[in-house]
Amino acid sequence: MTPFALIDNLEHLSNPFTQFEHIVTELKDNVPFLNDPDYKRDLQLALCFIYSYNGSQATYNSYRREVERLLLWSWHTQSTPTTQLRRDQIEAFIHFCITPPESWIGIKNVARFKQHMGRRVPNKEWRPFVSHISKLEFSNGDVPVAKKYSLSQAAIRATFSILSSYYGFLMQEEAVHQNPVALIRQKSKFVKKEVTRRQVRRISNLQWDYVIETAEMLAEEDPATHERTLFIMNALLGMYLRISELVADERSAPVMGDFTKDADGHWWFKVLSKGNKERLIAVSDDMLRALARYRQFRDLPPLPTVAENTPLIPKNRGQGPMTSSRQIRNIVQFCFDTTYQRMCDDGMKADAEDLRVATVHWLRHTGISEDVKTRPKEHVREDAGHASMATTDRYIDTEYRERHASGRKKTLRPH
């Protein structure tokens, strides 16, 4: 049986601490389990746990995904509330997530709920799991297939982490006596140990030279569309920005006034990053010139004024800031695709291949990787907003270069 969604998007979800009965009333027609007090209590506990993460849309979505999958699996396949699951059943759930039945897998992202006669009702096309394909496969004309669904190692680690937090919450609420996730001793059979340090995904200096030259050419040909493209590309690499730090959301809306000058005349850029933590990024002279060019195109003074509320990245149409990270991805992807074609036309197809699979986040990795070669890594860590120095150390390639240099001397015919 294909299950219905249980938990709506944050903007449509009533407060489960005060309006739980209203939520149950809306769901009962499609979820007969809720006629049983044990399952009803199970849903209430899950909703209260997830709702406590309403300060961040991304975090809420992640916790909802994992806990809702567990609820649906426990109710539909084990005929029991999640509060009564044992350790061996949690292991069975992990196996289920790795190879779910095709009836539980979708091939596109669809809304969980939709409006019907003034009510929010479950969307019958929604599935708990979604099969995806890579950028390269998509560009080659491939389409997602349910039977090719796979769960990444990062996703498995996230499942363990979130469900362990969930059962920790249930213990605090005295709904369970122990955490069955924490009792799983051999997580290694699900989660592989990583190599000492994964290599950072980035574009090469040659590729970046072509990319930024492409953005400049586009801006000259069509400034109304691509002066913004040029600024976005410079900001993503030059200030190591995450895509979420360029768009407006429920937490913040980036404005020109986030560029500030201190008493020494140095410019900084303030962002609200992961974990709702503010950080200041040192703005380079080149980045300041890129900002001045972008502002002059927008008929603004070359540099921002104190507390200026002009949106940093405006919408394509209308007033206000850009709120869609997908639009940023589309802008960057267009620049990558155009650059790839230029490099192929210049006889450098082999050098351009990475651009076919590169994502927006690669620009952040590229900027950090270059700066850590010449700047103190403590400074790079602060600008990047890394929680620990170990994260910044991943970008230092000296050890890899020396290791490979010695490895190149190995012979297939030992003396």
Automatic annotation (TrEMBL):
Region (Disordered): 375-415
Domain Tyr recombinase per the UniProt entry, residue ranges: 201-409
Residue ranges with Basic and acidic residues bias: 375-385, 394-405
GO molecular function per UniProt: DNA binding
PROSITE patterns xrefs: TYR_RECOMBINASE
Gene Ontology BP term (one): DNA recombination
Superkingdom of origin organism: Bacteria
CDD domains referenced in this protein's UniProt entry, alphabetically: DNA_BRE_C
Residue ranges with Basic residues bias: 406-415
Main subcellular location of this protein, as a coarse class: cytoplasm
Keywords for the protein's UniProt record, in alphabetical order: DNA integration, DNA recombination, DNA-binding
Subcellular location(s) of the protein: Cytoplasm
Protein name: Tyrosine recombinase XerC
Species of provenance: Marinomonas spartinae
Name of the coding gene: xerC_3
